[in-house]
Design brief:
about 25% strand; alpha/beta; seven-stranded mixed β-sheet; two-stranded antiparallel ribbon
């Protein structure tokens, strides 16, 4: 499969899919942290909408383009996260032992519009299979309802962090099996989440059943 990992520079997801035999590429405004040739530095939307050459092995976007088979995107969450919603409004900010400060939310609102437009463009890209990831995000109401909620502990890590997925023509990333999720869970988790994590049965990230190369 021809897979684009948008907004990734670490190469972690790209390497995982290439190890399975897929023609996977990452894309980010920054160069790849691992110096990989399988990385486009530039606008992810341009790469997503143009497609890629089947025989492309050195970052080429040549003449005979094929659409991507799958897009996995990590759009920036700074201006979409629900945790920052309060900064969208104009209000007085109380400060300890200081006079209140007036907060003008116009810049934050403008930045949010850009973030929403980018998220929506990724979601509407002409690609058959799409997965977008964000923490609890306004995109669920402003773009499309989230498909799935996951936590790191469901994939073998010890932390709880509510993460939302938007899936298009893809199965859930997390499948229940007879394996324990994690041997320990961070004490920073909400008590209810901690109890659920200890009692859950889950696959680890490496055991998620993604198709091998050749599946379309």
């Amino acid at each position: 499969m021809r897979i684009l990992i948008a907004c990734e520079r670490s190469g972690v997801v790209r390497r995982a899919f290439r190890a399975l035999g897929h023609n996977a590429w990452s894309c980010d405004l920054e160069p790849a942290d691992d110096g990989s040739p399988y990385h486009f530095q530039g606008d992810a939307l341009g790469v997503a909408y143009r497609g890629v050459r089947v025989d492309c092995e050195r970052g080429c976007l040549g003449e005979t383009l094929k659409p991507w088979c799958m897009l996995i995107g990590h759009p920036p969450c700074t201006h979409l996260s629900l945790s920052g919603a309060r900064w969208l409004t104009d209000h007085w900010v109380k400060r300890k032992n200081k006079a209140p400060r007036w907060h003008d939310g116009s810049a934050k609102r403008a930045a949010q519009l850009e973030a929403v437009a980018f998220f929506k463009a990724l979601w509407n890209a002409p690609i058959a299979r799409i997965c977008l990831e964000n923490p609890m995000s306004m995109a669920s109401t402003l773009v499309a309802p989230k498909t799935q909620t996951i936590h790191p502990w469901q994939f073998g890590h010890g932390e709880c962090k509510t993460t939302w997925l938007w899936l298009k023509n893809l199965p859930p990333w997390f499948r229940r099996t007879s394996l324990r999720a994690a041997t320990s869970v961070s004490t920073k988790c909400h008590p209810a989440q901690t109890a659920h994590a200890h009692g859950a049965r889950a696959t680890t990230a490496s055991q998620t059943r993604w198709p091998r190369s050749g599946a379309h």
